């Protein structure tokens, strides 16, 4: 098990967050893999929505992005970006997935700039649909490799709301979604302390100690007594990833070698 | 019957003046009006503003050509490649001013204009630096918090954005400008309704009888369109659903060149300034390369012939 690729562990963990019968808002990369994995295993009834306007597709091949024509194949509705995003505001989206350049202890994300906003050191792509998903999906999951440069005490720019400044802040801003539920990293899975809304370590991946996770996080995690080992991926899940969902390793790297 | 909207590409491009604001259709590597913008880049227009959601290649090429001054936008990046380098470095070195939004924030500002409203209420962006940190707009001129007079719900209000010109590339149209587009439609409906003038380039011109046969396929009615250009492969090197895939090698060529200002200059000299017309641009790539991009009518994308099988 310790040989299982980190990408596979993250994809399987993300797929477990999706429940059967839900509607999930999906972007490019590991979330796409996680969604198809969920659909092929425990959540056959999941409905997928993509910000490009593709709804409930049945692609024959893994798409290279949400704009790839491969993704449109077999969809039950094809529309525009406004339609897809407005479903979030209406409360039709149960779960969304986000990546990020920076994340703070409250699960707030930065995908806009490093440095000063008007004359940044590095200009990043910007929110896109991320702010909309985090504000308005009923819940969302962040997927990000653990690194003290990514998990920071203070963001350069707050693009996308986690719990903002803490308890009550999302409600004051009128954000309809309930906020982030999990942060899936390559070392383990973080969650949020219900009282402080700050991050805590809930599950560790094989061979990783809580101290190793903390050392890869640039802020103090809230102490948590019930940290446990993450449930290992099943042979079926790994086999599906390897043979059906991402056979060319487009998003899940080093999978072919993993057993 | 109305009048024909058909004009030459040069005549359509001439509508764009220095200092204008532009919005353009498309998403990722799909249906952005690249033929129009390559031609615009040869005119040397300057101080343009983009009001964009996902037209990353348009923003990047305008930035590369030094024509872009300001950007109201939500996300510009190249799916599968990475950052839009000339656009991003333009912001880093102060040549381009940025005003950030979420996708929905941009769409709602365009929709406000398109619906003739002074603002739109919405429920994202609040509480974040998109509302709290000023770009070139005063934050209070961009969005404000508001409590519903009906049930007390807290929303944010965003002000309208009205681009001078929307440029759209689509599948086909009749001469009156009734436009069809297949596949995802990005933000085209909101952009067209928001803009003061609308220019559409299309792969094919068909009769009005053909449009009337299936009116549900019409994305934009002719009354919304000012100028129409017949421009086959008008999105190339990007793709158009039902017609052709994007040319990955051509995109990679640009992406590599854009790593440095010098490389970008050479690329612009070769592929923009060094080529007189859209047709010369297509000829420079060659018929076999264009035909190899054609999509399968059933799949909606190109069926990849297995390796080792002769084409």
CATH architecture name of the largest domain in chain B:
3-Layer(aba) Sandwich
Count every helix of chain B, treating DSSP H or I runs of 4 or more residues as helices: 13
| Head-to-tail CA distance between termini of chain A | 6 Å
User: From the helix content, strand content and strand pairing of chain A, which structural class follows?
Assistant: alpha/beta
Could you tell me the CATH topology label of the largest domain in chain B.
Glutaconate Coenzyme A-transferase
Radius of gyration of chain B: 20 Å
- Largest beta sheet of chain A: what is the strand line-up? 2-1-5-10-11-12-13-14
Would you tell me which CATH topology of chain A applies? Answer: Glutaconate Coenzyme A-transferase
Largest sheet entry of chain B: 9 strands, mixed
Radius of gyration of chain A: 18 Å
Q: What's the CATH H-level superfamily name of chain A?
A: Glutaconate Coenzyme A-transferase
CATH superfamily of the largest domain in chain B: Glutaconate Coenzyme A-transferase
End-to-end Cα distance of chain B, whole Å, is 46 Å
How many independent structural domains of chain B? 2
CATH class of chain A: Alpha Beta
Category by helix and strand content of chain B: alpha/beta
> Are there runs of chain B of 5+ residues with pLDDT below 50, and where?
none
Outline the low-pLDDT stretches of chain A.
none
């Amino acid at each position: 098990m310790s040989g299982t690729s980190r990408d596979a562990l993250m994809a399987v963990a993300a797929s477990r967050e999706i429940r059967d019968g839900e509607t999930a808002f999906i972007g490019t990369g590991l979330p796409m893999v996680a969604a198809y994995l969920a659909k092929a295993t425990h959540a056959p009834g999941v409905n997928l929505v993509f910000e490009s306007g593709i709804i409930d597709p049945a692609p024959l091949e893994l798409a290279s992005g949400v704009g790839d024509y491969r993704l449109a194949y077999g969809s039950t509705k094809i529309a525009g970006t406004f339609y897809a995003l407005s479903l979030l505001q209406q409360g039709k989206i149960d779960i969304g997935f986000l990546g990020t350049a920076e994340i703070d202890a409250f699960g707030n994300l930065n995908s806009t700039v490093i440095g000063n906003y008007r004359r940044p050191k590095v200009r990043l792509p910007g929110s896109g649909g991320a702010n909309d998903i985090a504000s308005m999906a009923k819940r969302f999951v962040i997927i990000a490799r653990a690194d003290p440069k990514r998990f920071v005490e203070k963001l350069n720019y707050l693009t996308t709301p986690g719990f903002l400044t803490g308890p009550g802040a999302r409600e004051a801003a009128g954000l309809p979604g309930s906020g982030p539920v999990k942060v899936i990293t390559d070392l383990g899975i973080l969650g949020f302390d219900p009282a402080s809304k700050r991050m805590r370590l809930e599950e560790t991946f094989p061979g990783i100690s809580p101290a190793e996770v903390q050392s890869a996080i640039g802020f103090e995690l809230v102490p948590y007594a019930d940290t446990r080992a993450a449930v290992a991926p099943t042979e079926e899940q790994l086999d599906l990833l390897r043979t059906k969902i991402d056979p060319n390793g487009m998003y899940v790297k080093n999978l072919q070698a993993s057993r | 019957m109305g009048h024909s909207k058909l004009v030459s590409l040069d005549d359509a491009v001439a509508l764009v003046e220095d200092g204008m604001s532009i919005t353009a259709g498309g998403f990722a590597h799909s249906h952005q009006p690249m033929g129009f913008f390559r031609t615009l880049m040869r005119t040397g227009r300057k101080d343009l503003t983009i009001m964009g959601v996902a037209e990353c290649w348009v923003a990047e090429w305008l930035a590369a050509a030094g024509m872009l001054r300001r950007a109201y936008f939500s996300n510009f990046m190249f799916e599968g490649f990475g950052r839009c380098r000339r656009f991003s470095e333009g912001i880093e070195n102060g040549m381009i001013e940025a005003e950030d939004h979420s996708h929905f924030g941009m769409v709602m500002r365009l929709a406000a204009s398109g619906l003739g409203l002074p603002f739109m209420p919405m429920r994202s962006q609040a509480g974040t630096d998109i509302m709290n940190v000023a770009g070139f707009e005063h934050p209070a001129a961009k969005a404000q918090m508001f409590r519903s007079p009906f049930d007390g719900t807290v929303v944010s209000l965003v002000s309208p954005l009205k681009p001078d010109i929307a440029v759209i590339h689509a599948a086909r149209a009749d001469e009156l400008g009734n436009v069809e587009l297949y596949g995802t439609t990005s933000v085209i409906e909101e952009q067209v309704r928001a803009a003061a003038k609308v220019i559409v380039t299309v792969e094919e011109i068909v009769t009005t009888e053909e449009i009337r046969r299936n009116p549900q396929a019409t994305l934009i009615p002719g009354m919304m369109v000012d100028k129409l250009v017949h421009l086959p492969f008008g999105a190339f090197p990007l793709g158009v659903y039902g017609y052709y895939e994007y040319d990955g090698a051509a995109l990679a060529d640009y992406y590599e060149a854009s790593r440095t200002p010098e490389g970008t200059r050479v690329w612009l000299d070769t592929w923009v300034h060094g080529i007189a017309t859209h047709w010369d641009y297509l000829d420079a790539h060659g018929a076999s390369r264009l035909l190899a991009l054609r999509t399968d009518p059933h799949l909606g994308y190109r069926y990849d012939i297995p390796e080792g099988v002769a084409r």
